[in-house]
């Protein structure tokens, strides 16, 4: 039985798992550092030749069709399944989620009476938070997951939110019948590949004076993909098939249709703390999570999936915490339409 199998079956202690993950992260950084300019340019060309997004159904299976019940035991009260923001005085996941949502609100420059598109809305954390604050705005949340859309509709109804609609659609096929004043996309574009085509389409959904706020996780210098065909790429196979790690300068380089107005780089300790909080919540609610996984994966497989999710959270924590969060982190951008 190899190390991965031992880990997936709970036979290795946390300290050893963390050590092994840090070793892998260090090797990955060395590989990316050693790549030539030609190799980096070839990667950009592959993106330009790719579909807008690929393996979208696999991504759904891995994350987004897992029941909301699991995420309610693991995430914070807003069900924000993305990096939260941890200012120095922040002491809880709930407060970090709130700080992150406020940061999005400010950087996206929301005002009342706008039409707002939440592209890749997850469990609706942003739209369900923002819609009541802007009762005269109209929000459209788009997810590729039926379970997420159902959850958002149920929450909107129970909270009396009537200015939020939800659409279930693959981003490859999404074609709205309106234009928007603001577009918000939080940890969705890591699942995209052909940014040139995607940004061309997005620009057609924007008023001339519209803004798009983007949040992606990133590396400060290097962009790379997750190769699910590589037997050593556990993350790519189990949790991130078809995904990429953008560099901080990747998205702004596709500037034919959208232009960058502003950018920010959050250090990786924000994601490290977020992932550690998720792991703590999962362990505190172990029995409840086990019941959910019994139903989803079957009783024979639920223990393995418990450990796979723990490994996923550990891998996120150690990656983003590497070198005190100064390698991998989170990129924020505001883009406007080229006219």
Question: What fold name stands as the CATH topology?
Answer: Rossmann fold
Number of DSSP helical runs: 14
Shape: globular
Strand order of the largest sheet: 3-2-1-4-5-9-8
Q: Which series of helices and strands comes N to C? A: HHHHHHEHEHEEHEEHEHEHHHE
Mean pLDDT: 93
Summarize the structure.
It contains 14 helices and 9 strands.
Q: How do the strands and helices of this protein lay out in sequence?
A:
Elements: H1 3-8, H2 14-34, H3 37-49, H4 56-64, H5 68-74, H6 93-108, E1 115-119, H7 125-130, E2 138-143, H8 146-158, E3 164-168, E4 180-186, H9 195-204, E5 206-219, E6 224-225, H10 234-238, E7 244-245, H11 250-253, E8 258-267, H12 269-284, H13 286-297, H14 302-321, E9 328-337
Parallel strand pairs: 1-2, 1-4, 2-3, 4-5
Antiparallel strand pairs: 5-9, 6-7, 8-9
Helix pairs in contact: 2-14, 12-14, 13-14
Keywords:
Rossmann fold, 18% strand, 9 strands, 339 residues, alpha/beta, two-stranded antiparallel ribbon, single chain
Polypeptide structure, described:
By secondary structure, this protein is α/β, with parallel strands linked by helices. It has a single domain (3-337), classed as Rossmann fold (3-Layer(aba) Sandwich), CATH 3.40.50. The protein contains 14 helices and nine strands. The chain has a seven-stranded mixed β-sheet. A two-stranded antiparallel sheet has the order 6-7. Helix 9 links the parallel strand 4 and strand 5 (206-219). Helix 2 (14-34) packs across helix 14 (302-321), helix 12 packs antiparallel against helix 14 and helix 13 (286-297) packs across helix 14. The longest helix has 21 residues, at 14-34.
């Amino acid at each position: 039985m190899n190390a991965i199998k031992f880990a997936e079956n709970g036979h290795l202690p946390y300290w050893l798992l963390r050590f092994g993950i840090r070793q892998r992260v260090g090797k990955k950084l060395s590989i990316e550092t050693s790549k030539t300019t030609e190799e980096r340019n070839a990667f950009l060309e592959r993106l330009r030749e790719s579909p807008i997004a690929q393996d979208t159904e696999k991504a759904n299976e891995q994350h987004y069709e897992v029941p909301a019940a699991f995420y309610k035991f693991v995430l914070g009260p807003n069900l924000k399944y993305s990096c939260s923001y941890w200012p120095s005085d922040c002491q809880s996941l709930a407060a970090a989620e709130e700080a992150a949502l406020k940061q999005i609100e400010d950087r996206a420059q929301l005002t009342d009476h706008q039409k707002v598109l939440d592209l890749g809305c997850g469990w609706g954390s942003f739209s369900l938070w923002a819609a009541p604050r802007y009762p005269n705005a109209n929000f459209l949340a788009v997810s590729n997951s039926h379970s997420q859309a159902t959850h958002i509709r149920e929450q909107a109804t129970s909270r009396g939110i009537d200015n939020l609609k939800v659409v279930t659609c693959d981003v490859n096929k999404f074609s709205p019948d309106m234009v928007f004043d603001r577009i918000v996309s939080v940890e969705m574009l890591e699942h995209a590949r052909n940014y040139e085509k995607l940004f061309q389409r997005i620009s057609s959904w924007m008023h001339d004076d519209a803004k798009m706020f983007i949040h992606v996780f990133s590396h400060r210098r290097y962009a790379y993909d997750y190769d699910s065909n590589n037997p050593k790429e556990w993350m790519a196979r189990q949790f991130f098939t078809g995904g990429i790690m953008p560099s901080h300068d990747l998205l702004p380089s596709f500037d034919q249709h959208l232009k960058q107005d502003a950018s920010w780089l959050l250090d990786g300790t924000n994601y490290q703390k977020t992932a550690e909080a998720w792991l703590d919540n999962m362990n505190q609610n172990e029995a409840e999570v086990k019941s959910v996984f019994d139903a989803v994966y079957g009783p024979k497989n639920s223990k393995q999936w418990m450990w796979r999710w723990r490994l996923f959270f550990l891998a996120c924590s150690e990656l983003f915490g590497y070198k005190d969060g100064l390698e991998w982190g989170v990129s924020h951008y505001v883009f406007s339409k080229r006219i």
